[in-house]
Amino acid sequence: MLGEISALAGALTWAVNSVLVKSQSARMSALSLNAVQYLAATLPFLFLLPLSGKMATIGHIPPLLMAGLIGTAMISMVGGDTVYVRSLRLIGVSKAFPIAMCSYPLISSFVAVAFLGEPFTWFFAIGAVLVLGGLYSFSPRRRGSRRLDSTQPALPANDATSLLVGTEKEASGMGARIRAALANTQTQGVMCSLLAAICWATAVLTLKLILGEVDAFTATAIRVPVAALVLLPLAFWRDRKFSIGTCGLRALAVVGLAGIVGVALGTVLFMLAIQNAGAARATILFATSPIFALVLSLLFLKEAITWRL
Questions:
Q1: Other CB atoms within 10 A of residue 217 CB
Q2: What is the per-residue pLDDT for 148?
Q3: Taking the model in full, what pTM does it have?
Q4: Cβ neighbours of residue 296 under 8 Å, at least 6 residues apart?
Q5: In sequence order, which residues have a C-beta less than 8 Å from that of residue 87 and are 6 or more positions away?
Q6: Helix axis angle, 185-210 relative to 63-72, nearest 10°?
Q7: Residue 72 CB: number of other CB atoms within 10 A?
Q8: How many CB atoms neighbour CB 41 within 10 A?
Q9: d(CA 180, CA 161)
Q10: DSSP classification of residue 264
């Protein structure tokens, strides 16, 4: 029962985190914003880790497990969270969060069932179908049908040269449509959300194996500072104007709160959920986050909520 309660409580913290981050995403780049929230999330562990009596256990973690913890921090926190923050800016909480949070448990659960020996049930299969249907409903829609260009003369069907020219034009037109689709803000936002989901799923499946040897609090106390140490230099290098003066104290305070609530507290709860409920069950329960996020984004960010959403 502890795993299920931890997962639902963590789902709420992640929803709060996304709303807070989105509210400041126009003032800071995705990389800088992610660096600030992980720096803030590190602070509680600097105080709590010595008090917990677990400092000594860190030195006894085998090198392979330590490499796994650092690797998962790089994949999910540095990579996954940064592209997720980018998706929040592009398409908003009400779209980016459900796409990422629904894709992520679906990927994790399929792999956990296939390779980690977690049980497969018909409820799982039905849930997977519903998730895929929900993701399809978020896919960008093309309006209007394709029409032939009436200004171009018809080419003789038996003329090989004309046929080749027509094929080249068709290929060129398809390339232009692909480039236009990739340049679309909605498409970029969806792609960033899906990439974040892949990063998170990769990390959680690795953590499932590690958490049999390392407790959830210690694992989080290692991963969060590692992410902060990597993100801060990257933010200063990538965003040369990144400073307190340019961001504003209020923005830094809000992002810092997001880090403490969603990263520090949320990650510990997530680790507890994986440890006590299993990877598949924990990630599916965490997927209730969009329900909380939908209400919060409507109340505090005034995002438009459509019937399809």
A1: 18
A2: 36
A3: 0.71
A4: 15, 16, 19, 93
A5: 96, 99, 100, 189, 190, 192, 193, 196
A6: 160
A7: 25
A8: 28
A9: 28
A10: I
